[in-house]
């Protein structure tokens, strides 16, 4: 949020950006309650006390809004690979699990959309498949890097390990969202037992 | 399905049971496509070419139908604990993972409803929390049993291990639903690395 004088000085672009951010935040909340399939632009407009046409001026379709909502996540942690190479893969992952403790509704929205989007007909299906492929490719490199550096001792295929870390993490977070079971202890155990730190 | 003469012989109760089973199967398909929040009794009636009042005669509310849909699963594998004690926990779990390969839409429906139902306001929230508690309690006993029998060598807390097996499994199945990644290899690796068979 910018104050009124700053908004006036920065002109219509700043206003558009702040309105877009507001709609994206509302969509995150609506999708985390009703799912993507169950949410609607109309609900989002109502929540923000805006006309439906105003919302549709910024996001003409629900899928356009979904793309913007999903982009939030992808752009939110550009330094993860660098931290992993510097500090190790296990501390990097645990750092993100800890950060996610403070973004419960965003994590819930991603969990619901991921489960829905397993369906090949879902509008986020390609996003989900690409996200699994991209994160697994990144993590398999980082696991191979840690093994070459002598930080971990497993001799399993890094691609298999990366896939289990990514998907096990997803399930552990769903459990945390449901009943509060500590995801940090569960992820640390999973990582240590799979990767076997030196 | 029963044939017409058998249905006539067995009378109205058999007919009601078969109509209920039909509605439950349709609800499973609708919820696995649209989620529970996004699905409706109206869509289910349309899919079965029934009137909405006929569906509501069997299930007056969507949450009543949800309860019946969720019950399918709970009643579907009463012998799992016995198989685990006889053959071991790891083969028992792998057997269920292999069986789930043939029930993709049912697994998808459970994955979507579980993610939605993490929300405390969701109509299946209590079911989800109870299911996690019940499955974890059962699995921690079975893991402790295998350890006492010398089948596995981990010295970690069985409750922590049981929780990671249950939630890791959920994430591994979501990945399988999305892009076909083999859930049997992933679960076997997870179980072996966590439980360390003798």
From TrEMBL, chains A, B:
PROSITE patterns: HTH_TETR_2 (PS50977)
Top-level taxon: Bacteria
Keyword check for Metal-binding: no
Residue ranges for the DNA-binding region feature of this UniProt entry: 40-59
Keywords noted in UniProt: DNA-binding, Transcription, Transcription regulation
Chain ranges of the HTH tetR-type domain: 17-77
GO molecular function: DNA-binding transcription factor activity; transcription cis-regulatory region binding
Matches recorded under Pfam families: TetR_N
Keyword presence, Secreted: no
Gene3D superfamilies listed in its UniProt record: Tetracycline Repressor, domain 2 (1.10.357.10)
This protein's name: TetR/AcrR family transcriptional regulator
Organism from which the protein derives: Microbacterium saccharophilum
High-level lineage: Bacteria, Bacillati, Actinomycetota, Actinomycetes, Micrococcales
């Amino acid at each position: 949020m910018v104050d009124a004088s700053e908004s006036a000085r920065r002109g219509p672009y700043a206003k558009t950006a702040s309105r877009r951010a507001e709609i994206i935040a509302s969509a995150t909340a609506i999708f985390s309650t009703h799912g993507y399939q169950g949410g609607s632009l109309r609900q989002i407009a109502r929540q923000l006390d805006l006309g439906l046409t105003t919302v549709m001026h910024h996001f003409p379709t629900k899928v356009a809004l979904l793309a913007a909502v999903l982009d939030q996540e992808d752009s939110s942690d550009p330094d993860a690979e660098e931290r992993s190479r510097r500090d190790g893969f296990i501390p990097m992952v645990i750092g993100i699990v800890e950060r996610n403790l403070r973004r419960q509704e965003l994590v819930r929205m991603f969990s619901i959309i991921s489960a829905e989007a397993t369906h090949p007909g879902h509008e986020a299906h390609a996003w989900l498949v690409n996200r699994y492929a991209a994160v697994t490719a990144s993590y398999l490199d980082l696991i191979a890097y840690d093994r070459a550096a002598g930080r971990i001792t497993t001799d399993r295929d890094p691609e298999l390990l990366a896939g289990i870390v990514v998907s096990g993490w997803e399930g552990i977070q769903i459990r945390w969202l449901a009943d509060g079971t500590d995801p940090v202890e569960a992820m640390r155990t999973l990582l240590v037992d799979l990767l076997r730190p030196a």
